[in-house]
Amino acid sequence: RIGGAFDFPRDRIIIVPAAIQTRIQLDYTLAHELTHALESQHFNLHLGTLMRPSEASAVHRAVVEGTATLVQDRYQNRYLGDDIPIDQRIEGARSLIATNPGAYAVNAEAIFDYVDGALFVHNLYQRTGDWRLVDRALRTPPRQSQEILHADSWPGASGVQPIRLGLASVLRHHWRWVGGGPAGEEQALVILLAGNLGS
User: Fold this and answer.
1) Exposed e or buried b per residue across 2-13, where buried means at least 16 C-beta atoms within 10 angstroms of its C-beta
2) How far, in Å, are 15, 43, 59, 104, 156 from residue 146 at the CA level?
3) What is the CA radius of gyration of the chain?
4) Beta partners for residue 132, in sequence order
5) Angle between helices 104-111 and 185-194 (to 10 degrees)
6) CA 187/CA 182 separation, integer angstroms
7) CB of 145 within 8 A of CB of 112?
8) Cα distance between residue 113 and residue 119, in whole Å
9) Where are the beta strands (DSSP E) in the chain?
């Protein structure tokens, strides 16, 4: 459920009253959306480009949503009496999102944005004890999902290694190649896990 959104073309925060049931939910939703507003103003995030169908856009979106989620959870912990450790709160959202009745691909994207992105940002914050690395990621975001999923490797050289699946022996002679394209680690995980859903 979406409780709010930052309407960046109009510089306003939209609250969805039907999704907000308590004052605490309103407060942490505002903390999340205000983070978007302030970071957009300070870092010129080009929020309109984050929905482009590319690995780089998805990774950039995960950093943006990750910072807002981390600030929301830190606010909840500091001011709203939430005593669950922040990393556990973030990780706990994984199962909450996964059980949403929505489409599998939509839930997987939300998990990458709000959980994996937040864990990435939390890792950066924990390393220095301040926002320096987080600010750097907002200014020059990672380009590949493996950098989000393996936060300790960022910043650094992120060489992409091609993966050979060794499928030649199981392919039928009458099958033909119909297309392809690059997939980052996050996309590959989503595809592979989707194949296990009915198992």
Assistant:
1) ebbebebeeeeb
2) 33, 23, 9, 21, 12
3) 19
4) none
5) 140
6) 9
7) yes
8) 10
9) 4-7, 12-15
Whether this prediction's pTM lies above 0.90 is answered by no
Note whether 14 and 23 are within 8 A (CB): no
List the structure tokens of 189.
């995980």
Tell me the pLDDT tens digit for each residue of 40-64: 999 988 777 777 778 888 999 999 9
Using CA atoms, how far apart are residues 116 and 97, in angstroms rounded to an integer?
Answer: 12
Q: Percent helix, strand and coil across the chain, each rounded to 5?
A: 60, 5, 40
Rounded to whole angstroms, the Cα distance separating 35 from 27 reads 12
The string of pLDDT tens digits covering residues 96-144 is 888 888 887 788 889 999 999 999 999 999 999 999 999 999 999 998 9
Residues 89 and 73 sit within 8 Å (Cβ to Cβ):
yes
